[in-house]
Amino acid sequence: MDDDEIGNLFQDEEQHMTESAKIKLRLKKFCYVIGALLILWVISIIIVVAINKPQDKDPWSKAYEKAINFIEKLDSNGIKNLLNGANNIKTIISLKNINEGNKLCQGQIASYHDNNSNITFKGMCIQEGTTGVQFSNLTGILWQSEMNTAATFNKTLMYKIGNAQGNESKGKGINTLLSPCVNIMNKAQDGILWESFGENPYYSGICASEIIKGIQDSGVIATIKHFFGNNSEIYEVLNPSNVNKTALMDFYIEPFYRPIKEAQVGAIMVSNNILNKTYFYENEYLFTNILRNNLTFKGFIISDLWGIYNNNIYNYSLLDLNMNEECTQGPIEERSPSEENLKNKTEEEEEKESATRIIAAMYKMNQMENYYDVNLFNETKDENWTKIQREAATESQVLLRNEGDILPLQNNSTIAVIGNIAFKDDYLTNNELENKNETKLDLNEHIQLENNSKFGSFISPLPEIRKLALNKSIDVLSLRDLINTNSNGKSTLEKIKNILLDTEIKLDTIIVFLTATSDRKYSIIEKNKKNKIISSLLNHADELINAIKYKFNVTVVINAPLINDLSLLDNVKAVLFSGFPGDEASNAIADILFGEANPSGHLPFSLGKKDEPNKKLSSLNNLTKIDKKIEKALKDEFRYDGIDSDGLKNNKENHGIEKYNYSEGLYIDQRCSDLKKKINNNFFPFGFGLSYSSFNYSSNINASIKGTTLTAEFNITNNSSFLGQAVPMMFLSFRDIKGYSNYLFKGFEKVEIEGYSNKTVTIVADEHALSYFDSKQKKYIRVKGPIEVCIDLNGNIAKSKVNIQ
Q1: Is the pTM of this model over 0.85?
Q2: In this structure, which CATH number among 3.20.20.300, 3.90.1150.10, 3.30.360.10, 3.40.50.150 belongs to the domain 64-364?
Q3: Tens of pLDDT, residues 301-353
Q4: Dihedral of the CA atoms 638, 644, 646, 650 (nearest 10)?
Q5: CB neighbours (10 Å) of residue 580?
Q6: Tell me: the pLDDT tens digits for 460-510?
Q7: At what angle do helices 348-364 and 76-83 cross, to 10 degrees?
Q8: Are 306 and 85 in contact (CB under 8 A)?
Q9: For the chain, N or C: smaller number of CB within 10 Å?
Q10: What is the CATH code of the structural domain delimited by 693-804?
């Protein structure tokens, strides 16, 4: 308000006033002007202060302030209590009454009361959770495997998955969730392939970041694992991984970069294995130079359960939380290692630093006050989270083949559904359950993620198939139907094969569920020794497929972590890679088969045999002792001085140490493949996945550099009547940099497009995606010069070029 505006307010009054009144009015007018100016001055000061106020760039700073204050008030026993966790796995497994385990976390820090300061620490509950809360007696959702999560290629959905999993965990009183896992899927014998996001380090980091953001936004500490090189899992605690420095940073540590830098993950779990002769938890260079200094990790470092194996070492200064001790004494709520088992750090100050990191992570997630009590059996299933799980299960289904468009299944047809999972559609009656004295935990475990594991399973999809078939007048015959109709003997796939080959049964399609599991130890399943991935499918379904695929239209649904030899799929009309889809598996699979949903999943790994430089990695015979020449060539760049852990104290008789030489360097994953490589019966590359829709896009890609990022813009058209989701992927070629001559996956988007319409899509590669680690300069360097930009849509490739100055 200026002087003229204020003067006009009083102009009429002033003409009829006495001189004294006029003076008072003018004084009032003056006060209004001064007041208005004073208000404007105060506002300007507030704006200037707000603009110039130093911004707190460290999201951990406030949490650390509170943690330091808390730790300073604890006595030495309270600090040691924080650093030595209790491992309760064996106790849980040995429980005769499963209901006794409702408050028994897999790992935990015991509660503690400091009498001097009168401070009470409530404790920390630590639980596995990549596919849902483990040992929760099915009171929560069984989520899809991380392999399936990656197959969705949907960043928004990944965040929702993490947030729902975090809220489930919080509702059960869990402080720290041991998820996600980012170990690279590059060894066929890996026993936990399903627990990773695939073969690509860039993509694994993207997936993990979204999951972590979701988990930690719920108030639960996420734990990224295993740091690092845990890619084989055969005798996971003994096998050395020998890696050169370039591959170490740009491949095996790359999945940890974004989760630390962008998602601010609260905890990191250390690998059990050895790196270049040294156990990870002894490796000062890795933890100090790389993890703390280079990646600026602010959270706490935790050992794997039973993760410390060099019994001669009692200096764990590089670890913050030791989860090695098995604990059986005391009440469940207060389990902690006995005093003689407490591991001491070398300096009191180091103990305080580690304890501070743990408490800071808890403060950052607002867990230090009014947090949920532990009750792992608290029912946490929520309708909204179930919808998210079904969405994830459905979007993770990868259609690999659909010759003659036999999918979705046609109306007025007859189909047979066979395979070991389909046979188990006849649920046990209540009386049968009572006779077997089964617990809720054991029900309906038709397919397990691991052999003899409680990590999770899912039920047969046959009931849902029958339900949807009714709507389309489709007759469904099950394995049991065929046996009962044609044989009085015991139901086996061998007899089914004979029935199908020897009789004239009219079937339009046979759906064969082809299933396999994995294991962390040497196993003998169907006469396969030392085979981590049981690729000879249970009940010999592979033999059945080979026998009938020339007579019938066969659709194969693969529920497995990986199938090494896909030659049995030759002449099979349709192939659906289903993986481990979780609770909503039956709905997801049936919806895809009947066209209730449009497949939009894509492989996060290359599937099948490859004639590539890394073909040895696809062989189960790649379990060789270390080559002396390679051993000599590998420098001990990360060796912790004074520690020689190559001779292991607990190396049992006939328990050989398998040593893995990552001699392939950077030539792993899709960078070993030409993007134009023809898809064939024995090979499906990273990123492959069909749809019932037909997509294409303009060959004109507008690629440009904007600031520190690269942007590619193009148009996609849906030429079919099906609403579908397309996943264009961006690959970049850094041809002037040694080791980067092939195309690197550096960006993607998932876009939904209505039938017979189009959409403009933009993919961005940020500064880190345009960088590589220079081992000589020991830092990330942004690429310069010409870059070839390739947009790939299931083998349809368009290219452009940009030049980075």
Answers
A1: no
A2: 3.20.20.300
A3: 998 876 665 544 444 557 899 886 654 444 444 555 555 555 555 578 888 99
A4: -130
A5: 29
A6: 788 889 899 998 999 988 766 776 555 444 445 667 778 888 777 788 999
A7: 70
A8: no
A9: C
A10: 2.60.40.10
